[in-house]
Write a structure and sequence with these properties.
alpha/beta; membrane; transmembrane helix; glycosyltransferase; alpha-1,6-mannosyl-glycoprotein 6-beta-N-acetylglucosaminyltransferase; signal-anchor
Length: about 575
């Protein structure tokens, strides 16, 4: 039993007293260096055991030290930890308060579904690098001037998710706080600087990752880290040696992480983990009011900055034949000249007032930028149809300045590919805005359509709690399905065409001759090389190639010369990040 195990440990300690300076005569030598008390050693047998198992890893983990996490619906402690003093933090606090009841209801529902499952409480550090003064904090001054809020929406929801799930949370918003949180122990250095971190997980971003590398030195252990990465990082850009040799090196990427450690705003590629955010939900009363108050000929334009409206007067003129157009463009004194006179501009609106505007409108119109933000989901949740431009050719790092330097070769087919692929008609209409007739026909069709408010489950509070809980508690995987892709096709597309999703965790299990034989690949030779499309078969020479570098396993990679071996799995409807047996 547990008591017997503790007795064995204690006996072992006393026979090995000479090894540990804090044991010995009456256990008094633990005072020889203040770093021992820093780690909680107080002269008691229990504190010795805890130190040796958790600070030095010399003894096995102590089962009785594991704590179960319990959902908490009181956000007061979280709001206190987030603090204030910057407009960005005030924005995040307002969002947390506004959605508090929604989070509480979701936590209760999830707890009822997972009742009986043990959930370990983790010690988690959240270091929001892009909001630190050391990174320039370019976002905070723009909050009240129409600047991008998507990152702050996501970070507010990540913090709330981790808090509501009941984990032991520490928040860092400066390099000084980061150093204090990581806690370099005082004293002469008897305690190991490269020992375990005081956290099980660290959530940060690329700015924070650089700061941690700089200030942690040898204590920097990458396996603890989860990187919030809006647009994602593909394996070809992540492996430093490969990216440098093959022209994929950018200012981001090259960290040699497991690509699942990058956590994205939308499910771009299964190579990364989908973190997401939440969309404000409606109660029955609000849904009734929307149905009652919808104005069929009212449109709202997606674009808080005047520059987004430049060159769009022709489309707006067509739309104005059918609808009254409203804008929310920021301005200080004079109305922006880019906004036509027939548009009613409300200026920059607080979130609640913007919600009220969307609940009246029938149409939410995007001009192509910004890419992949939260606003279209908010509009769809309030019963709007999102009309957006199709990109032909698709935008990518090869042909568009915005994506240049980002660690991904992903091709973006529209302003918001997630809404196009995962939601679609009648809530989302994607057309060629260069074709005036096609645009006008889309507007006419929208006027005839009756559309209910809609939120994908994975963007609800319950969906995000469920998904992040599964990540933290180590989800189980369902059975592998193996496919050979067509040439010039990624495993993302190959799996999707079969109603499945690519699962990079399976690549090590298919990187062998048995997998090639199972697909009747008819290999005339088998070699191992570093290439982000391997394992694969050369389409002309019937040469088969294994992957030599595990960090290059990639769902996203495409080659016109190869057919790829693709590991696929099923997924939960409305929760693409999780397999059917993951809960």
């Amino acid at each position: 039993g547990t008591a017997k195990n503790h007795a064995v440990y204690l006996g072992f300690l006393y026979t090995e007293a000479s090894r540990f300076p804090f044991t010995g005569s009456k256990g008094a030598r633990w005072t020889s260096d203040p770093c021992y008390s820093f780690y909680g050693v107080d002269g008691s047998d229990c504190s010795f055991l805890i130190y040796l198992s958790e600070a030095e890893w010399f003894c096995p983990p102590l089962a009785w030290r594991n704590q179960s996490s319990h959902p908490t619906t009181n956000l007061s402690l979280l709001l206190e930890r987030v603090g204030s003093g910057k407009e960005s933090l005030s924005f995040m606090r307002r969002r947390m308060r506004r959605l508090a009841a929604q989070w509480a209801a979701a936590a209760r529902r999830l707890d009822e579904r997972l009742r009986g499952q043990y959930r370990e409480q983790k010690r988690i550090l959240v270091h929001v690098g892009f909001l630190t003064e050391e990174s320039g904090d370019v976002f905070s001054p723009k909050v009240l001037k129409g600047g991008p809020l998507g990152e702050m929406v996501q970070w507010a929801d990540i913090l709330t998710t981790l808090h509501v799930l009941g984990h032991n949370l520490k928040i860092s918003l400066s390099v000084k706080e980061l150093q204090g949180s990581l806690g370099v122990p005082p004293g002469r250095g008897s305690c190991p600087l490269t020992g375990p971190l005081p956290f099980d997980l660290i959530y940060t971003d690329y700015h924070g990752l650089q700061q941690m590398k700089q200030h942690m030195g040898l204590s920097f252990r990458q396996c603890h880290i989860r990187v919030i990465d809006t647009f994602g990082t593909e394996p070809a850009y992540n492996n430093e040696e490969y990216s440098t040799l093959h022209g994929y090196r950018t200012n981001w990427g090259y960290w040699n992480l497991n690509c699942k450690q990058y956590m994205t705003m939308f499910p771009h590629t299964p190579d990364n983990s989908f973190m997401g955010f939440v969309t404000e939900e409606l109660n029955q009363t609000e849904r009734f009011k929307i149905k009652r108050d919808k104005v069929n000929n009212m449109a709202v334009v997606y674009g808080k900055e005047a520059s987004m409206w430049k060159g769009e007067e022709k489309l707006l003129t067509i739309l104005h034949r059918y609808m009254d157009i409203h804008g929310t463009v920021y301005y200080e004194a004079q109305r922006p000249p880019e906004v036509p006179a027939f548009v009613r501009n409300h200026g920059l609106l607080p979130q609640q007032e913007l919600q009220q505007l969307l609940r009246k409108a029938k149409l939410f119109l995007g001009f192509g930028f910004p890419y992949e933000g939260p606003a279209p989901l908010e509009a769809i949740a309030n019963g709007c149809v999102f009309l957006q431009p199709k990109f032909s050719p698709p935008h990518s790092s090869l042909n568009h300045e915005f994506f240049r330097g980002k660690p991904t070769s992903r091709e973006v087919s529209s302003q918001h590919p997630y809404t196009e692929q995962y939601i679609g008609k009648p809530h989302v209409i994607t057309v060629d805005f260069n074709n005036s007739q096609e645009f006008e026909t889309a507007v006419q069709d929208i006027l005839k359509e009756k559309v209910e408010p809609f939120i994908p489950y994975e963007y609800t509070c319950e969906g995000m709690l469920e998904r992040v809980n599964a990540y933290i508690q180590h989800q189980v995987r369902s059975a592998l399905r193996l496919f050979l892709s067509p040439e010039a096709s990624s495993c993302v597309k190959t799996c999707r065409d079969s109603g499945l999703i690519c699962e990079p965790a399976y690549f090590p299990f298919i990187n062998n001759m048995e997998a090639f034989n199972g697909l009747n690949a008819q290999c005339e030779s088998l070699d191992a090389e570093k290439n982000h499309v391997f394992p694969a078969v050369h389409v002309d020479r019937r040469e088969c190639f294994q992957q030599k570098e595990p960090l290059l396993f990639s769902c996203a990679g495409i080659s016109a010369k190869h057919q790829r071996l693709c590991p696929c799995r099923d997924y939960l409807h409305g929760q693409v990040a999780l397999c059917r047996d993951c809960l």
